[in-house]
Fold GH18 domain-containing protein.
Amino acid sequence: GGTPEDRENYVLLAQTLREEFEREAVFKNKPRLLLSVSIAHHEKFLPGYDIASFNTYMDFISVICYDYHFSYESAVNHHSPLYSLEEDSDYSYDAKININYTIHYFMELADPAKLVLGIPTFGRTYKLENPEDTTLGSYADGPGDKGPSTGEKGFFAYFEICNFVNNENWTVVQTKPGYAGPYAYRGNQWVCYDDIAMIRHKVAYAKQNGLSGVMFWTIDYDDFLGNCQTDTFPLIRTARNALLSSDSMPIPDSGNQNTLEDDNRPPTVRPRPTPSVTPPLVRSDVRPQKKPLTILPRALPPLATPRTPASDRNDYAEQSDGV
């Protein structure tokens, strides 16, 4: 990810690449190469990106809308909620830890038609402190066991999750419809993930907010062999079909996104520090930056017409437990 000290150089890199792509397109009489960037939602990375300047030079800005929560946290939670799952109150840390808040922050700085909503084809796993306490917000005792294929603690690919659910008697619980995907558990193992229904909700959200589309991390974490469904790549195919469909589905009212029905309210968990920030997850402890660099566009050759982006375009960001 970017750092606050290098944000100006990153914009200069984007500007230089764009200019060279334009020149190459004219010189070789071919469509211009596309330029894109993936940006994490996390407070650690946002100060490293001048999003408004990227909007000038990038064709697409992929927003990494997952890993809002991690398996090293003290309570289980969904890592890619569309809306907040925490009750509406004066103390609502999670009100900003969701896709809707992140996307609207980016929409203030960039053209929505350039934004690409990132969707995970993996789940975050936890080891429950008490196997009888399985609801959102329950205490966790570290990351869950390694997946049989992926071999990483705190992480299952979707093809592993769907196999557990279909063949190994995991219990599936749906959160509030349209707000976040389900979670599943067996014994002291717990995982949150996006299912086909949640993929449809996220695509509908992207379409109704005028976004460019969606991307996935990653292709090979989907059920690529079709072992769980009747077709291969069920999550990605669902997204593609929903993007191409003229039908629309309602999305939850964002004005009421923090209100849960009494019978679906997560339990209170141990307090977390209240963030003293206005933008989503932008830290206040980052040292002051220099005056923002104003970059005046240099004269460019006539624009070449880029090829129409493919519907299955994917951008990838570096993945780690700290992303």
Summary: The chain has a mean pLDDT of 80.
